[in-house]
Amino acid sequence: MKKNVLQFGYAVRLVWTSGPGWFIASCVIIVVQGLLPLVALYLLKQVVDSLVAALPGAGGAGGLPRVYLFIGLAALVWLLEAACRGLAALISENQSQTVADYVQEEIQGQSAAMDLAFYETPAFQDTLHRAQLDARVKPLRVVNALTRVAVNLISLTGLAAILLAYHWGVTLVLCLGMLPGFLYALRVSRRLFEWRNACTEIERKTTYLHWILTGGGYAMENKCFGFFRVLMPRFRELRRQLRRERLGLLQQHMASELAAQIGGVLVVLACLLYMTGQAVRGVMTVGSLVMFMQAMHRAEGIFRGLMQSFNSLYEDSLFLRNIRELMEMKPSVTAPAAPASLPASGREAFRMVGVSFRYPATDRLALQDVSVELPPGGRIALVGHNGSGKSTLVKLLLRLYDPEAGMVQYGGQDIRAFDPDAYRRRIGVMFQNFNRYWFSAGENIWLGNVALDPADEQIPAAARLSGADAVIRRLPQGYATQLGRGFKAGAEISQGEWQKIALARAFASDAPLLILDEPSSYLDSDAEEELFRNLHAHARDKTILFVSHRFATVRQADWIYVMEDGRVREEGDHASLLRREGIYARMFHLQAQGYGT
Q: In 169, 176, 216, 524, which residue has its Cα 20 to 30 A from 504's Cα atom?
């Protein structure tokens, strides 16, 4: 119970933090909406009593103006209720959208702060999926449920006071008649929450299958291989399983709600019969009877609505736990309390000293006692078979992970002494699986250095260095051209041209170290030659780390590290490694044979 109260508190804080003004406006309208029905009930009593008193048999024909007065006041209250409903709907919509946007921004910020390790674990993917799924819907539902609960509580408190004025037992019987169904509904809500968490991976699989079956990136292979014929039935079966299990839980929910309604109707009927007998015996006026009957009827409806709102709020608060679970995760790669200043000149060496590392939840070391040096202005290459540890080394160099043993140094200092964001700005990187952003050509490059103005001359300069400038100038709107077919008027370009854009993004940072992972994998021989010629002419002062299987790229390096099974097995320049006739020489000759040399 304590946890659920904490979830309610978390929901209220979300609503307040996202929009204090809307929260205050909502509170005011809630109070007014809660009180107006009570005023309407009292006026109804006065109308009936005044009307009875004004009947000819009662000798009060002159009392009609009093009847008309109370009818007019009742009509005014009804108009106010209608106006409040419209105003409340407007406030609720704005408040809901504000909360939903705020929660999404919080999730985006938290996702950006998380370690790369989180993204590479299924458990985090499940948590993120549940939080994203709930981000737009659940806060909105919580806002609406909180509003309904508050309005109903105010109205119910007033109605309870009216009924208590008649007899305390009426209120007690009414509550007891509704309570069992409410408690059972809470139990079903918890089971629904537990089921949702248990089936998260299945839901992610259906989302993934749907993306494969509908995504443009899979369209060519889908058409050529026709695998939609086997993936569609797989998707269908998973969705059928989810529907079947959810339907069973909802049927239980409906049964509990029906039982609650039947119990409530029987309780109200018994109370009304008792009160009618009291009126016949003259214990109360006709107006009082009408007021109490209306109060009873409304209290039963409001109580049922209150129970449904509590149930909805309880259910949604359970799902808010998914969002809260994500928001309370803490990254391990963080800035120290007092970060050290980065070297001012930018011309310092990057080193790995005795680094060992294993990925979370694995036993095998991905790197073992690795030591490498990237001297200022040097051209260094990493070579090795797939799985040899090259990509892991790059991740540690970027401080996407921290080593288990040893250290990564920059300018002689352990990089854990620096602020990670500031340190990473000293490195420009193009990953092998670089991203293609559906933004303009200029924005695609600008993302590599968002500290720049998007119109800064450094952006076309980076494009000239990578060879992308000529590609961009052929586009309909030059650097303002939307790239990709995802949005209207987007221009699609070739894989090699996308790679030039990605290279320009790495160069835009103007960082002292460039890490280029397979920088020419999609480039033709002329474009590859142009790239290396530009690097030689315009990036002499930069340290460049090449990660590649292509020896045309590797031979650009002054020093080469050869990796195997997470260790540096060989190092040297191209000629010395060939003379050694080891791993490097074997890989080189195998590739050379493919060219007939």
A: 216
Q: Is the fold of 2-327 the same as that of 433-510? A: no
* CB 417, CB 339: distance < 8 Å: yes
pTM as predicted: 0.74
What is the per-residue DSSP string for 78-121?
HHHHHHHHHHHHHHHHHHHHHHHHHHHHHHHHHHHHS-HHHHTS
Rounded distance between C-alpha atoms, residue 312 and residue 308, angstroms: 6
Interval 24-73: pLDDT, tens: 888 888 888 878 887 887 787 787 777 777 766 655 555 677 778 888 88
CATH superfamily, with its number, for domain 2-327 = ABC transporter type 1, transmembrane domain (1.20.1560.10)
How far lies 251's CA from each of 258, 305, 380, 552, in Å?
11, 19, 65, 66
Residue 100 to residue 11: CA distance in whole angstroms: 12
Question: Does the domain spanning 433-510 belong to CATH 3.40.1000.10?
Answer: no
Separation of alpha carbons 44 and 290, rounded Å = 8
Taking a C-beta distance cutoff of 8 angstroms, is the pair 381, 353 a contact? no
For residues 40 and 458, what is the distance between their CA atoms, to the nearest angstrom?
70
Which residue, among 467, 445, 486, 586, has the nearest Cα to 529 in the 3D structure?
A: 467
Say if CB 416 and CB 336 are below 8 A apart.
yes
Contact 454, 540 (CB under 8 A): no
Q: Which three-class secondary structure string do you get for 371-434?
A: EEEECCCCEEEEEECCCCCHHHHHHHHCCCCCCCEEEEEECCEEHHHCCHHHHHCCEEEECCCC
Encoding tokens for residue 303? 């109580």
Per-residue pLDDT reduced to its tens digit, 287-331:
676 777 777 667 666 776 777 677 677 667 666 777 777 788 888
Assign domain 344-426+513-597 to its CATH architecture.
3-Layer(aba) Sandwich (3.40)
**CA dist., res. 190 & res. 315, Å (int):** 7
The shares of helix, strand and coil residues in the chain, as percent rounded to the nearest 5, are 65, 10, 25
